[in-house]
Amino acid sequence: MSKTPPSGARLPRGQAPSNDPLVDGFLRNYAMRGLHPAARDPLGVVGGHAGHDLGALTPALALGALGVVFGDIGTSPLYAIKACFHDGAFAPSETNILGVLSLVFWSLMLVVTLKYVLFIMRADHKGEGGLFALFNLLRKDGNHFSARSMKLIVLCTLAGAALFFGDGMITPAISVLSAVEGLGYATDVARPAVLPLTAAILVGLYALQRRGTGGIGRLFGPVMLTWFAAIALLGIGQIARAPEVLAALAPHHALDFLFRHGLSGFAVLGSVVLCITGCEALYADMGHFGAQPIRVSWFSVVLPALTLNYFGQGAGLLLDPAIASNPFYGIVPGALRIPMVLLASMATICASQAMISGVFSLARHAILLDYLPRMRVMRTSWIIPGQIYIPAINTIMMCASVLLVFAFRESANMAGAFGLAVTGTMVVTTCLYFFVITRNWKWPLWIAASLVSGFLILDLLFFGTNLLKVVSGGWFVLLAACAAMLCMLASKRHQDGNWRLTLSRGSIPLETFMRRLGEIALARAPGTAVFLGVEAANTPKSLVDILGERGVLHENVVIVCLRRTGDPTVEAGKRLAVRHLGLGVHQIVARYGFMEHPNVPELLDEAESHGVPHDPALVYYLGGQSRPKAGHGPWENVLDAVGGLLFRGEPPAFTSFGIPAARVITEAGDVE
């Protein structure tokens, strides 16, 4: 695959070369694309609400957070308690019910409230959260990692991203299926229609993605507020009938359950973890709403509603153990079950939408960092640049979700796969968080280790118990994550191989280049040559190479640097900044909005009015497009084969910038 060569690529300041292509390529791309801490948001991925009074907007933002941030965790009552008693390993006796409820409650308190809401959410990068925010924090000046440590950090980030892709496939399937299963519980007549109806809803949901989340998103907050109010009222009604269930608030019930049942007791954590699915969204979506609105929503609405409903399901089980096959709908009055199915379906669509949008955002980051092939990315909003739609990813997720529904047939059967994806991502987040608080915040090692070890023990307990369910469903997320990881590594190897010469560290500052150019007697050829770059302060590598190899320079040299802004469009009068550097060298810095796409020939036409020579017969030097050598072992050969499949038929990247192929000159060479 070809792409606009990011000339002048260097590692960020403070980072020594690791001599590892995986690490250095990852870091160079962050630096080149403007994803390092020095840049707020050059790619147009707007997070937070810069320029607004967050305090004044907190109620509105808190309502929006209900619909997006808490959609996943808010619909967990549909299947969490059901999964704990699904396989019949535990009878719905009073001691077991109190033990499971205590595990659920303290999981919410320790993992979601303590770990994420009170601690992890403090680790933001300019208001942004998520795995890439943690990585950006680690990239700050002064953080010096060994090559081995940095490689571990890069691999952890990629592993978390791969698990997130798997989570994105499972969440819509398990959420919508668990909601529609209420029809089968309400009437046997509707039972055969559960799977086809679920598939139809999923297809419709994915079909709507091209319209963007803007219009649908305005409904998310009110829908989820209604949902939380409804599940809270259901819980209160049942707790009033069996108030003894509140004894589960005491943590000794959880400990007693675990130690009384031994290994099987710890195995139930693989189902309990379903109550905290979506906790990563609290952190990953922080940039869209701010930390304070998310905390307000959690403490005032979400946590009370979830606790009341979980305890209400426990009370319902105490009163009637026969509802263990579906405790959520078991506590819904018969006359309200159909309306509740409709409300639950709407809530799960909100939950699914949030995850799908999250996968789009993550995929876009991977594309920009060359860990995925170039795909068509469509902007769906002129206001919020983060609202995007990627048709290829959407199709893959739709097919995977529908296949999962028919493969597993019941939401409880997906619990193992779902929990494994969630807990794996949690482990990665905790590990990266440890580096942040020790390297960035300079916490004493013993304090950081004490805190993080507590979090990590909980994460590993949940992750370990879900590993026990690999055979019963967890295999899917492992397979999906491995496939995603393989594609990302193959894509990176392929693109690094194709552009290794361009991405090398050999670029020099532009001022140094111009000074040296004036000191030598250089032959000049007639005509105009255009060199593309991304850093205005550096000389494109292709220009340095051509001059060094040929000793001849065109009469006119135009260096074009393209920059992306956080605005939808850029006014025509503010688009160009032109510098005449002397000796026939001109530099154009062009700014484009996130709803625009650069067209280099049109840009050059516009620059003529700024004194840049216009030559109809100009040529474009895109640098040394290199050919990767054959792999040195089985693993390298596998990556090369996968990369060849991913990039088969891929057109050169320069064509998307309007550059005619007939005027492109590249210098090919082999690289290691």
Automatic annotation (TrEMBL):
The K+ potassium transporter C-terminal domain sits at 526-666
Q: Alphabetically list the UniProt keywords.
A: Cell membrane, Ion transport, Membrane, Potassium, Potassium transport, Symport, Transmembrane, Transmembrane helix, Transport
Q: Which residue windows are transmembrane per the record?
A: 97-118, 152-177, 189-208, 220-242, 262-284, 296-318, 338-367, 388-408, 414-436, 443-464, 470-490
Give its localization.
Cell membrane; Membrane
InterPro entries for this protein = K+_transporter, K_trans_C, K_trans_N, Kup
Any matching Pfam family = K_trans
Q: How does it sit in the membrane?
A: Multi-pass membrane protein
Question: Domain named K+ potassium transporter integral membrane: which ranges?
Answer: 61-513
Q: Which GO terms describe its molecular function?
A: potassium ion transmembrane transporter activity; symporter activity
Q: Which reaction does it catalyse?
A: K(+)(in) + H(+)(in) = K(+)(out) + H(+)(out)
Q: Which family does it belong to?
A: Belongs to the HAK/KUP transporter (TC 2.A.72) family.
Report the protein's function: Transport of potassium into the cell. Likely operates as a K(+):H(+) symporter.
> What is the name listed in the Swiss-Prot or TrEMBL entry for this protein?
Probable potassium transport system protein Kup
In its UniProt entry, the species of origin is given as Fundidesulfovibrio magnetotacticus
